[in-house]
Write a structure and sequence with these properties.
Layout: H1 3-17, H2 32-41, H3 57-69, E1 79-82, E2 85-88
Antiparallel strand pairs: 1-2
Amino acid sequence: MSLAKILLLTVALGGLAGCVQSQKTLASDFGVAVRQDIAAQIADPEARYPADTPTDGARVGLAQERYRAGKSIPPSTGTMTVGGSSGGSGAPQ
């Protein structure tokens, strides 16, 4: 390769280096959406339930046994409320 070609290549590459834009810091809100998504997927470790929430260990045990035996009771159709919204819980049978 001749000296002229090397010099021309060096000048061309030097000129291209001048077109590069450098950003030393990212925007102040960089990553906020990802952190919000992660926080939304984490269950509340301090969850509180009303004292009148019905719980019965024997009933839960029977439900688990029915599930294992493949004889679970399908949910009743009708309207149920979840989070303040109401809607049908299933199609009519």
